[in-house]
Structure formats: structure tokens, C-alpha cells
Write a sequence for this structure.
């Protein structure tokens, strides 16, 4: 199966082999070496000297940890909402009793620095700004360095959902001043699901010390203290870590710049071919179309569900449909993580062939 959904993404064979290894004592020397090597590799991919903590949970657990650790009830935050994942982070913050201001963008749009500045002016009490770097539901990536300047200029903490961007498109945690950055194992990091990774700046730790929201399983201070001894507070997903260890070596072996360039080229190829087939990008301007997942409206009269089913059953290619208001209107094709040109050529050929077979909507 050519798995072209935006997570979980395919794992390289060497990663799959590592995942099948026998367990180790998670309070022993073998695990200590493993978690220390993985953490060092993650820091290189995050481009940070900050703490990077590994939690056994999915990406949403990482987003929840980012909310639970740094605030007190009633604290105000500003969430930039470009789609499903921005909305999810806002929902998590609201569930924890934060006062949530939202900057809502129309589908396919990204915020300009001026829009973000105006939202901050209108909400001077917010303590932090939450931004989805790459909105997986609409296939758009924000200009994070430009937005980060606005956030830092206003003296707020910057929280970034990098779940579908880290390891796919450039992200400079330290150089751009990102305080809390969240990702997960099953997307750009081409590993099995089960791990979330959270980078925490010294300024964010300052917030942590003053925060009074309840925290336990996701208490990042506990994770930091135990990581110093090469352990995690609770039993970690050891197999996923075996896989991630190998995946990180492959990513860093290829070189981050080459990894980003490969994603850029495959995204370009995907957009070009889908447009030629009559699809229209959800991204309102191609300059901010995502390099890790392409979202596109199906051509007039084409049943998106039938297209996805035909691509799967006739061609063994798995693509994804739309979420929420985009359900039934779009397809999403991922070029994220372990992916090469032949994978995309095959997937796009399948979409082309299936398009001529599916009946039009009546
Ligand atoms: C996949 C994803 C998540 C996390 O999803 P989980 O299913 O909880 O791992 C969060 N944000 C973005 C942008 C994503 O693409």
C-alpha cells in the first residue's frame, strides 16, 4: 500500500526492523543511552539548545501538555486558527479554563504579520500566542519567522504546533524564538505513532514555575528531571523509541537541508499534477501551500469519496479526504517524511486513472 495520508506516514524498513526488537529495562543503562541519543537527535532536528521532552502520547497529548504546564486558570492566550488543528488547540485551552482569544482565518488563508499584530493589540492581556506551523487540514503553512517577530516584539510567549512541519519544512526553534514547540513521531519523523516531543525554552520554564493548572502524567518538570538521569517518569513506548532512534539517524544522515528540498520538490510535483487534472488548491495563494501535504478541491462533478475509494481499491494508494467543513469536497495527499519521487508519481498516476473512472455526482 502506498500510504499517502498525513500521518501515520510510512516508516523506512530499518525503522520497522528496529521496532521489532526485544524490550529493555526502561530503568537501565540501555534505555538511558537510547533516550539520550534520541534527545540529542531531536534537538538537532528542532534546531534548539532548549530541553526537548518525549512523552508517550499522540500529538494531541503534546498540545495538551503545552496547555497544562504553563498557565493558571483564567490566563488569556491567543490562538491562530487556520483550520482543524488550530481549533483543536483552542478547544484544549478552553477545556483547561483558559481565556481563549482567537484569530480565525478563512479556509485556505494564513495570517499576515499585520493581522496578528492587530489581534495582539485587541487582546493585550494574552500571555502567549499559539500557532499551527503547518495546518494539515487545509494544506497551508504560515510564515512562522515573520509571525514570531510580531509575537516576540509584543513580549509574549510563542507556542508552535509543528506536528506536520518538523522534519519537512524549516523550523528554527531558537533562532526564531519559539518557546514551546510540539511535534509527534508519526509524521515528518517517519516513525510509528505513540510519541510526542515538546521543546521548552527557559522563558517557558519561568511560566511553568508560576502555573497552577493541574498536571500529572504530562508534568513536564517531572519529565525534565528524570531525563537528566536517562529515564522517563512512566513506562515509555519503548518500541516507538527504537524506531525513532533509527529514523533520526536517517534524517540527520540525509541532512536537514536536503530533507527540506526533497519535500519542496515533491510538493511542487504534486501541486503541478493535481492542477493539471483540474483540482484547485485549498491554499488561496500557492506561495503558502504546504510542502508536507497538498489539499485540493476535486474537479466539478467529481465525488471525492468515490475517488478516494477507487484510488484505494484499484490502485493500492491511500489518500485522505477533508475534515470538518471540507469533508466530501477535497482530497489530501501527503508527501511527508519517508517519501520519494516514485511514490508520488505512482500516487498521482493512480489519481489520474481513478478520475476517469469515477462517476460524476448527480
Ligand atoms: C497530526 C496532527 C496533530 C496531532 O494529531 P494526533 O492524532 O493526536 O497525533 C496535531 N497537529 C497537527 C498540525 C497535525 O497534523
Amino acid at each position: 500500500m502506498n500510504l499517502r495520508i498525513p500521518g501515520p506516514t510510512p516508516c523506512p524498513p530499518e525503522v520497522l526492523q528496529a521496532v521489532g526488537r526485544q524490550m529493555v529495562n526502561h530503568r537501565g543503562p540501555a534505555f538511558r543511552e537510547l533516550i539520550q541519543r534520541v534527545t540529542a537527535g531531536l534537538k538537532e532536528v528542532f534546531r534548539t539548545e532548549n530541553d526537548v521532552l518525549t512523552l508517550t502520547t499522540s500529538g494531541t497529548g503534546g498540545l495538551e501538555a503545552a496547555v497544562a504546564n504553563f498557565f493558571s486558570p483564567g490566563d488569556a492566550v491567543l490562538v491562530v486558527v487556520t483550520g482543524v488543528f488550530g481549533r483543536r488547540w483552542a478547544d484544549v485551552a478552553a477545556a483547561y479554563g483558559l481565556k481563549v482569544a482567537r484569530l480565525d482565518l478563512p479556509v485556505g488563508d494564513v495570517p499576515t504579520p499585520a493581522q496578528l499584530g492587530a489581534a495582539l493589540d485587541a487582546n493585550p492581556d494574552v500571555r502567549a500566542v499559539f500557532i499551527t506551523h503547518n495546518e494539515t487540514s487545509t494544506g497551508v503553512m504560515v510564515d512562522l519567522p515573520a509571525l514570531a517577530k510580531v509575537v516576540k516584539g509584543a513580549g509574549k510567549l510563542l507556542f508552535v504546533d509543528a506536528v506536520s512541519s518538523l522534519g519537512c519544512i524549516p523550523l528554527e526553534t531558537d533562532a526564531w524564538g519559539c518557546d514551546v514547540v510540539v511535534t509527534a513521531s508519526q509524521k515528518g519523523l517517519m516513525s510509528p505513532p505513540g510519541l510526542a516531543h515538546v521543546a521548552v525554552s527557559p522563558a517557558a520554564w519561568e511560566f511553568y514555575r508560576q502555573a497552577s493548572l493541574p498536571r500529572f502524567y504530562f508534568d513536564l518538570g517531572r519529565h525534565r528531571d528524570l531525563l537528566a538521569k536517562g529515564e522517563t517518569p512512566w513506562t515509555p513506548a519503548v518500541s516507538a523509541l527504537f524506531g525513532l532512534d533509527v529514523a533520526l539517524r536517517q534524517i540527520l544522515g540525509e541532512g536537514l537541508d536536503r530533507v527540506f528540498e526533497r519535500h519542496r520538490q515533491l510538493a511542487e510535483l504534486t501541486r503541478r499534477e493535481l492542477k493539471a487534472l483540474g483540482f484547485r488548491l485549498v491554499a488561496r495563494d500557492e506561495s503558502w501551500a504546504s510542502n508536507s501535504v497538498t489539499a485540493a478541491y476535486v474537479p466539478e462533478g467529481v465525488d471525492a469519496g468515490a475517488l478516494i475509494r477507487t484510488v484505494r481499491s484499484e490502485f493500492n494508494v491511500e489518500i485522505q479526504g477533508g475534515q470538518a467543513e471540507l469533508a466530501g469536497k477535497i482530497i489530501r495527499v501527503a508527501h511527508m517524511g519517508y517519501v520519494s519521487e516514485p511514490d508520488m508519481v505512482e500516487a498521482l498516476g493512480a489519481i489520474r486513472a481513478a478520475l476517469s473512472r469515477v462517476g460524476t455526482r448527480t
About this structure: The chain is about 40% helix and 15% strand. Residues 6-7, 58-60, 85, 132, 136, 161, 163-164, 184 surround pyridoxal-5'-phosphate (CB under 6 Å).
